[in-house]
Amino acid sequence: MNEQTIALVTGANKGIGYEIAAGLGALGCSVGVGARDERRREDAVAKLRAAGIDAFGVPIDVTDDAGVAMAAELIEQRAGRLDVLVNNAGIAGAWPQEPSTVTPDGLRAVVETNVIGVVRVINAMLPLLRRSARPRIVNQSSHVASLALQTTPEADLGGVSGAYAPSKTFLNAVTIQYAKEFGGTAIKINNACPGYVATDLNGFHGTSTPADGARIAIRLATLPDDGPTGALFDDAGIVPW
Ligand code: NAP
To answer: pLDDT digits over 125-165, tens only?
Structure first.
């Protein structure tokens, strides 16, 4: 009998992350609902369980070293391994935002969550992922992270972004380096572009639903052994870096 896939989704209490958790759960995964606020986390877990999903709460603030280590310990105790890690938690900071108005503290906060938070979580979860037969890491990126698109004048990326877009470009660069490190191992790591999704992040101005936005991350989280690694994808396929 196949073992149940153990997944962790950060920022899973709402928005795209919640729908990634719901989608992975519907595929039969046991899903850790990673969220920093206890009430929001438990509400999401209850809602997922009511829908028949094997969900459990994982307290995690991706900016907190000790908290992330405790999250790894919780999964160690519960499952002894991790098969799927979706680094979805993220913040926008100001949007749009001219680089000339960015403050060091503002930039630091966005990078701390969107980049350093992802590295912190991956490195804490790696020992558990290495115990999986089919480890998959998905980082939530964005079309605005693509330097190729950012330097295409006709691409509509929603305005200038002094901190958020560069933070996701940084995240893309980090993913490429992880993919090199993981070459020759079973670990696949890819980045997802969910599209322009109506969530709190953009005041619900996005044009697609969180369930639509979740689709690509779910696909990358469940790649077969001959699937790609070290690339950026949206629903339509590869997005140029
Ligand atoms: P959202 O509804 O605002 O959800 C963001 C999630 O991240 C929330 O669960 C939030 O938790 C969590 N989070 C933020 N900081 C955290 C921290 N330090 N530790 C743990 N969790 C934290 O936004 P969303 O649109 O679903 O965004 C999800 C991801 O998709 C983000 O990485 C975002 O950059 C990316 N993305 C979104 C769009 C879009 O159009 N919406 C497009 C491209 C990429 P709280 O509830 O506690 O704040």
So the answer is: 999 999 999 999 999 999 999 999 999 999 999 999 999 99
Give yes or no: 18 in active site: no
| C-alpha neighbours within 13 Å on the C-beta side of residue 237 | 0
DSSP calls for 73-131: HHHHHHTS--SEEEE------SSSB-GGG--HHHHHHHHIIIIIHHHHHHHHHHHHHTT
CA of 89 to the centre of ligand 1 (A): 4
Helix (H, G, I), strand (E, B) or coil at 42: helix
The pTM of this model reads 0.98
Q: Is 17 in the pocket of ligand 1 (CB under 6 A)?
A: yes
What is the mean predicted confidence (pLDDT) over 159-179?
98
Domain residue ranges in the chain = 6-238
Q: Name the pLDDT band for 1 (thresholds 50, 70, 90).
A: very low
Ligand 1 center from residue 95 Cα (angstroms) = 14
Q: Is 113 in the pocket of ligand 1 (CB under 6 A)?
A: yes
Mean pLDDT of 177-200: 98
Which of 88, 125, 169 is the best mutation target for the ligand 1 pocket, counting ligand atoms within 8 Å of the beta carbon and taking the most?
88
Q: Region 157-174: what's the mean pLDDT?
A: 97
Q: Could you name the CATH architecture of 6-238? A: 3-Layer(aba) Sandwich (3.40)
Ligand 1 touching residue 13 (CB < 6 A): yes
